[in-house]
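W.,

You were right to be curious about this one. When I first looked at the sequence I had no strong expectations either way, so I just let the prediction run and decided to look at it fresh. Below is the sequence, 128 residues in total, followed by the output.
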Amino acid sequence: MKINFIKLSPTENMTVLVTDKIDRDRQAGIASKLLDYANVHAEQVGFIEMSNNPNALARLQMMGGEFCGNATMSLAAVLARNKNIRLGEKMDILLEVSGVGNLVNCEIIFLENTYIGKVEMPVPTAFR
């Protein structure tokens, strides 16, 4: 099976964002294969989905249904790039993210050869 994805390294936390539409019941198995050291060798996997909220640009569904700030920031940077953010420009992006009940605001600034991101971190409601 061919899977399209983007591999990013926010704060040196190797992240894979799957761009293909994958049914949720198949996401854990696919993520497990992507995380394998013999394969893509990443630390976390998220799936880009259409948002249920019209105010959000996209939805990020993490493999375990958790919230991940680095993956959220990564998706915001990818979306800012896709929206042709200009050098030095700041862009605010709202995302729907697993593990959070409300939309998450991300601020992305494009600098030469890099993106600087800020993510509105949700207050934890439980710890495992």
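Here's what jumped out at me. Residues 8 and 15 are 5 Å apart (CA to CA). And, maybe more interesting for your project: The chain has a mean pLDDT of 91.

Coffee later to discuss?

I.
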